[in-house]
Amino acid sequence: MSPATKLVSVVGARPQFIKIAPLLRSLPHAAERGGRPIEHVIVHTGQHYDADMSDIFFDELAIPPATFSLGVGPGSHGSQTGQMLARLEEVLPGSGADVVVTYGDTNSTLAATLSAAKLHIPLAHVEAGLRSFNRQMPEEINRLVADHVSDLLLAPTPTAVTNLEKEGLGKRTVLTGDIMYDAALCHRQLAAQRSRILERLALVPRRYGVVTIHRAENTDDETRLGKVLSALDAFAATALPLVFLAHPRTAKVLRSRFPVWSPHERLRVIPPVGYLDTLCLVGQAAMLLTDSGGLQKEAFFLGCPCITLREETEWIETVQGGGNILAGVEPEVIRAAVSTWEARAPEGRTDFSAAVAASFGDGHAADRILDAIVAFVRAV
């Protein structure tokens, strides 16, 4: 029997928990195809420390407990990343990793990238090649560093491949498809069977909207956030009732900077929910208003019209595929986007499946990711 290939996945935030689940399901099949066992270790940085943002995802997605839990928790970008770096440098040298696998564009990804590179451990980056072309976004800096330092770049879309080729990284790049599409395909039926979120919130399918806001460009700018809140109140008053899934950091900002804000009676602010409830909420919504990259995609996969509360997106495929309108935060622009969707999708439902398949693959990205990693390790 050939020696095992040992992968160490570093995760810490909601989107990363979603991405790792299909990979775990694919591990036995990848080992069979590759003719050698695969050993997998999870390192949880603690970036999302709240049970609503972490524990529930491990439970719902059947992710085994992390081998190493770093317990870093909240903090500024510098403080959080620095603590992760220090703790990863204690963990990674003794892990026996053949390759460290990072996911997406979070501070956990940045810390794992820098730590593994300085320890001379090969690096694979899942979801490589995304670009918003806005370097004011902390996530954009994280992406750029991860891609230029990593040894194997696992790109989810042809656009991502093109971005990497333009930066001289084409030889390190493999087109795999999008692993979050794998997750959505696998779990949407389970969500329909298990989730009772619509009943709990007394929501009628296609007769409500969903809101999420968590990007620093919106939450840390009082003027921008004030405009978003004004637009949401107007939407709730004139269009549809809204469910606002308030990220813990967003909720803290609302309490501290907008203490007198009283949401419209049809704008319900609730804590984050698990992945299955999120799939159900978005899948049955008439519209999604968000600044989240992952939720833009999930809406696209599920046929839910999306309005992105930013001026740009790293997932331009959702715009080009007709499923997403970039509105920024100006209330009148948001209102116009709402009117556009009311005209295009009066029933609150569309079908983007052809555009999804053209850009995001066939739902077997995890298989291609693991095959590429195993081939890379053999070649090192």
Give an overview in words:
The protein is α/β, with parallel strands linked by helices and 380 residues long. The chain has 2 domains: 5-178 and 361-379, 3-Layer(aba) Sandwich (Rossmann fold); 185-359, 3-Layer(aba) Sandwich (Rossmann fold). The chain is 50% helix and 14% strand. It has helices at residues 14-34, 55-60, 77-91, 107-118, 138-149, 158-166, 179-194, 197-201, 216-219, 222-238, 248-257, 275-284, 293-302, 316-320, 331-344, 353-360, 365-379; strands at residues 5-11, 38-44, 68-69, 99-103, 123-126, 152-155, 173-175, 209-212, 242-245, 267-270, 287-290, 306-308, 324-326. Helix 14 (316-320) links the parallel strand 12 and strand 13 (324-326). The two termini are 19 Å apart.
Assign the CATH class of the largest domain: Alpha Beta
Which spans have pLDDT < 50 for at least 5 consecutive residues? Answer: none
Quaternary organisation of the protein chains: single chain
- Major sheet description: 7 strands, parallel
**Estimated helix fraction:** 40-55%
What is the CATH fold-level name of the largest domain? Rossmann fold
Question: What is the total domain count?
Answer: 2
In the sheet with the most strands, the strands line up as 3-2-1-4-5-6-7
H/E series: EHEHEHEHEHEHEHHEHHEHEHEHEHEHHH
Query: Which CATH architecture of the largest domain would you pick?
Result: 3-Layer(aba) Sandwich
Number of contiguous helices: 17
Alpha-beta content class: alpha/beta
**Strand residue content:** 5-15%
At the fourth level of CATH, the homologous superfamily of the largest domain is Glycogen Phosphorylase B
Provide mean pLDDT, rounded.
94
